[in-house]
UniProtKB/TrEMBL annotation:
<protein>
    <recommendedName>
        <fullName>Peroxisomal hydratase-dehydrogenase-epimerase</fullName>
    </recommendedName>
</protein>
<comment type="function">
    <text>Second trifunctional enzyme acting on the beta-oxidation pathway for fatty acids, possessing hydratase-dehydrogenase-epimerase activities. Converts trans-2-enoyl-CoA via D-3-hydroxyacyl-CoA to 3-ketoacyl-CoA.</text>
</comment>
<comment type="subunit">
    <text>Monomer.</text>
</comment>
<feature type="domain" description="Ketoreductase">
    <location>
        <begin position="11"/>
        <end position="206"/>
    </location>
</feature>
<comment type="similarity">
    <text>Belongs to the short-chain dehydrogenases/reductases (SDR) family.</text>
</comment>
Length: 309
């Protein structure tokens, strides 16, 4: 990749939930770099209640008037009308290159008190919404042999968080979803990655102390989203955790593990009890080629090793 300005000239980008927060900052940055942007937002509350076209309209006006960029608004919900969001890109700009799955709501409560409706609605917006958007964009991306997708995960998805069983499940679901799309899209030059941000927005302003919030500008998240979706970026299937100007990659890691002899007598629950400490031991890595991404050949290697015991 050359180190000059990363241009998005003539690329068409859909950013869901970009009427505020992180999505708004992405939309402006893409537009400043020449992209044609669909600003999607149904304009509801943090819990996903209500509907208002103002949020998306304000961002579109800002892009057009302040930055002389190109943008159109779309007010559909990712849960009901994802096809129409992609149609907005096609009918206005003739193509769809980049999808940023960013729309989100919170319905926090302890798991003991969490209703089925609040579990389902959070899964619906984050996970099913991203599925529907990708499903609608995928045929265009495959056909043109170009596509870039970013799914927005969360620390709560990777590590869990009190009161967020619904949100955690949805967010980690987005990681698995991205990992498979990355594999299936690879030969069509479709790259799919996840971000795990922490940033100042209405989602965090009441739970993070002000002196920390000050460090968490959403402008520190946008550069990574643009990098991951640029045409010269080949990264795919990566999870990037980022906040306050710190950027890092997260990966799955398997412990060094314990091989049991294939005889049925050897892999009993009692044998596991005896070997538990070495099963979960990460200290030495005799099989470090078995780290993510998992390949079938790794299993063949382990089976071979077990036979040797
Ligand atoms: P935000 O509430 O400002 O932005 C979310 C936007 O999504 C809102 O404008 C909302 O109207 C829109 N939206 C909600 N439901 C929608 C639907 N069905 N269809 C279309 N639009 C819808 O919050 P944010 O912090 O900017 O969050 C952006 C994304 O980042 C979310 O997916 C969130 O879960 C994720 N995230 C944020 C943080 C953080 O620290 N702010 C951390 C981890 C993950």
């Amino acid at each position: 990749m050359n180190s000059n300005t990363l241009s998005f000239k003539d690329r068409v980008v859909v950013i869901t939930g970009s009427g505020g927060g992180l999505g708004r900052v992405y939309a402006i940055e893409y537009a400043k770099r020449g992209a044609k942007v669909v600003v999607n937002d149904l304009g509801g509350s943090l819990k996903g209640e209500g509907h208002n076209s103002r949020a998306a309209d304000i961002v579109v006006s800002e892009i057009r008037e302040k930055y002389k960029g190109t943008a159109v608004a779309n007010y559909d919900s990712v849960t009901d009308n994802a096809e129409s969001i992609i149609r907005t890109a096609i009918s206005n700009f003739g193509r769809i290159d980049i999808v940023v799955n960013n729309a989100g709501i919170l319905r926090d409560s302890s798991f003991a008190k969490m209703s089925e409706a609040s579990f389902a609605s959070v899964i619906d917006v984050h996970l099913n919404g991203a599925y529907k958007l990708c499903k609608a964009a995928w045929p265009y991306m495959r056909k043109q042999k170009f596509g870039r997708i970013v799914n927005t995960c969360s620390p709560a998805g990777l590590y869990g968080n009190f009161g967020q069983a619904n949100y955690s499940a949805a967010k980690l679901g987005l990681v698995g979803f991205a990992e498979t799309l990355a594999k299936e899209g690879y030969r069509y030059n479709i790259r799919v990655n996840c971000i795990v941000p922490l940033a100042r927005s209405r989602m965090t302003e009441r739970i993070i102390p002000p002196h920390i919030l000050k460090q968490l500008a959403p402008e520190k998240i946008a550069p990574m989203v643009l990098y991951l979706t640029h045409e010269d970026t080949d990264a795919t299937n990566v999870i990037i955790e980022l906040a306050a100007g710190f950027y890092s990659q997260v990966r799955w890691e398997r412990s060094s593990g314990q091989i049991f002899n294939p005889s049925p007598k050897s892999y009993t629950s009692e044998a596991i009890l005896n070997k538990w400490d070495s099963i979960v031991d990460y200290r030495d890595k005799p099989f470090n080629k078995t780290q993510h991404p998992v390949q079938l050949s790794d299993y063949n290697y382990l089976i071979q090793k077990a036979r040797e015991l």
